[in-house]
Amino acid sequence: MSKSSELEFAQLKTMELIHQVAENNSKIKKELFASIEDIQTILNKRTKYLKLHDNYLLTGHIATDIEIEQFFEQLHIRQNLTCNSPIERNYYSCRIKDVDLCYWCGADDGILEPSENLKSQFKTIYPLCISCEASGHEWSTRAPIVFQSKNKKVRA
Length: 156
Prior knowledge:
The chain is α+β, with helices and mostly antiparallel strands. About 35% of the residues lie in helices and about 15% in strands. The chain has two domains: about 5-40, no CATH class; about 65-155, no CATH class. This is 23_t:CDS:1.
């Protein structure tokens, strides 16, 4: 961009002003497009929306308070997450669909079925995929079942 265009461009504080100046000054418009192309080349075309629009920005649908409330009725987020926590399907869940994700890597394919013996020992058994089992991970479990009397199961 030329020095004069850079000085003029530096004074523009909003996208609306940039748009107006570019519409009225073909030299600046051409230089802006060239600058954007240069940036996209530098970033190996990794930018998606870096372009000068010929029209004003149109906003999409803005959610109403009711829609936001309905969304949060379906969304559950566990509060006790840490950066060291392995992936668990219930950390982020939606009551609409239930997809098994590997406890260790988050994969949704190649999920193994736990043995009947393991099912009889624990109330909660988290999914495990073939790859994680092959790399030495074991089933992650919670809430062992303890038998107190003949036919009564109790959580430990």
